Amino acid sequence: MRRPMTTMLMGTALTIAASMGGPALATPASGFVGTTLAVGRFQDIEAFNKLVPPDFWATREHRDVWLSWQRTHGDSDVYVQSNVWAPGGTTGWHTHPGHSLIIVTAGTVTTYEGHDSTCAPHTYTVGMGFVDPGGGHVHVIRNEGAVEARTITVQVIPAGAVRRVDAPDPGHCGF
What CATH number corresponds to the domain at position 31? Predict the structure, then answer.
């Protein structure tokens, strides 16, 4: 008796859940190609660097502070990726399980954040870098220029994790 009741309750719950949500349409990439240049498996990462004046923590007025902290528990996969956007190309809305450091090597890319209802563009040109924090941070990267754009990305994710998760259009950017 217990098994049929559990099955019925699970079926009912799934039916209700399916009827409540609309279609979650992913936004696929277009005019965008990513190529993995290298991948490596790392064990626990524990790196902390600092360059701060000795009295920084006492005054908090110094602006020339540099801190870097990377800590993982368990194995990580680290990817080096080359990305290319044709003019008008887009990554589509997506997220990653870990963070990425991105350097623009040609052209210009523009990012938009899924949580930003104002759809404010963030534009990066050759030599500039930016961070994708990952961990559910939904975003899109586009080439809104007339020439090809390129980036090199270093991505750190949990070992064996899917590197990219397509996300539905948040609906506030109009493209």
Answer: 2.60.120.10
The larger pLDDT score, comparing residue 125 to residue 60, is at 125
Q: How far, in Å, CA of 101 to CA of 95, rounded?
A: 14
Q: Count Cβ neighbours within 10 Å for each residue of 97-134 and write b for 16 or more, e otherwise.
A: bbbbebebeebbbbbbbbeeeeeeeeebeeeeeeebeb
Q: How far is it, in rounded angstroms, from Cα 80 to Cα 91?
A: 17
Q: How far apart are CA 155 and CA 32, in angstroms?
A: 17
- Helix locations, the chain, DSSP H: 2-20, 56-59
Tokens of 18: 């399916």
- Encoding tokens for residue 164? 């990219």
Examine the pLDDT at 13 and tell me if it is beyond 50: no
Alpha-carbon span 77 to 36, nearest angstrom: 12
Overall pTM surpassing 0.70 (yes/no): yes
Whether residue 118 is contained in a domain is answered as: yes
Domain that holds residue 157: 25-43+74-166
Residue 60 inside a domain? The answer is no
> Is residue 66 situated within a structural domain?
no
Is 95 within 8 Å of 138 (Cβ atoms)?
yes
pLDDT in tens, 47-95: 887 766 666 656 655 556 677 888 999 999 999 999 999 999 999 999 9
